[in-house]
Design goal:
Blueprint lengths: L1 E4 L4 E5 L5 H20 L2 H17 L1 H9 L6 H9 L10
Antiparallel strand pairs: 1-2
Helix pairs in contact: 3-4
InterPro entries: Ald_DH/histidinol_DH, Ald_DH_N, Aldehyde_DH_dom
Family: Belongs to the aldehyde dehydrogenase family.
Pfam family, one: Aldedh
């Protein structure tokens, strides 16, 4: 699948599109992982989610580009509403 930058009309990126079997396999694995995740104590789940949040912050610029560019949304709007809006209140200070 080719992503087009609407501001230029030019090809921006090519991504592989999952077929039905790949999606079904991903869902199967997610469902299989759920019981272990649900049984994990909340403190450990919270720590894992904080680490995930740290990764989002580390790669924020790339996320902003991927989120805004294909649909023509401004980087400023994406940064404020989509990427950094999910930060914890302490990180906004």
């Amino acid at each position: 699948m080719t992503l087009i930058d609407p501001s230029t009309g030019k090809e921006w990126y090519k991504v592989d599109k999952a077929d039905k079997e790949q999606v079904e396999l991903a869902v199967k694995h997610a469902e299989a992982a759920w019981p272990a995740w649900a049984a994990t104590p909340a403190v450990f789940r919270a720590a894992a989610l904080r680490q995930y949040g740290e990764l989002i912050n580390t790669y924020a610029e790339e996320f902003i580009d991927v989120e805004s560019r294909p649909i023509g949304k401004t980087r400023a709007r994406t940064q404020g509403r989509d990427v950094h809006a999910r930060r914890s209140p302490e990180e906004h200070r």
